[in-house]
Design goal:
With about 150 residues, the protein is of the alpha/beta class. It is about 20% helix and about 25% strand. It has helices spanning about 1-20, 60-65, 75-85; strands spanning about 25-30, 40, 50-55, 70, 100-105, 110-115, 130, 140-145. The strands form 2 sheets. The chain has a 5-stranded mixed β-sheet, with no helix packed on it. A 3-stranded mixed β-sheet has the order 1-3-6, with no helix packed on it. About 25% of the residues are buried. The chain binds cobalt (II) ion. The site of cobalt (II) ion has 7 residues, from loops.
């Protein structure tokens, strides 16, 4: 009984942490076309928001590359379309694309990349999404970015 109540408390703690706005995020990916989180909740009072993308798979970035890209949801598809033409050497992001709020490099299995950016250009409550701009991934490999 003691163990059971402990694990319930742990579950509750995880649930409340995940709903709480944060400044630092670790985003895990692997050899499938999905992020291990569907929603990220950031705090508008953060000086900087830091995102570490960690690829726990085996495949190379040419085969199963992933990045973490942030934009307004309405800009997502256009960024991905232009990014496809930009190629791997540009991390599948069109150079100078002003619709991109922040993005990591494209990484493969065993690699990680960390970026930091200021939340100040973002509007709390705005409609933002994070996604992978690797060709073909953006339609399913995406989630909601909430700024509180
Ligand atoms: Co991807």
């Amino acid at each position: 009984m003691k163990n059971r109540s402990l694990s319930c408390a742990a579950l509750l703690a995880v649930a409340s942490v995940s709903a709480e706005a944060a400044c630092d995020f670790e985003v895990l990916v692997n050899d499938s076309m999905q992020f291990q989180i569907k929603e990220m909740v950031a705090d508008s009072s953060c000086d900087t928001i830091t995102v570490t993308l960690q690829h726990e798979g085996q495949l190379t970035k040419k085969v199963m590359g992933h990045n973490w890209t942030l934009s307004k949801t309405e800009d997502l598809q256009g960024i991905a379309m232009d990014g496809m033409n930009a190629g791997l050497e540009n991390d599948y992001i069109k150079p100078g694309d002003e619709r991109v709020i922040a993005h990591t490099k494209i990484i493969g299995g065993g690699e990680s990349d960390t970026i930091s950016f200021s939340p100040s250009p973002l509007t709390p409550g705005g409609d933002y999404s994070f996604f992978c701009s690797y060709p073909g991934h953006w339609s399913v490999m995406r989630g909601t970015f909430v700024l509180k």
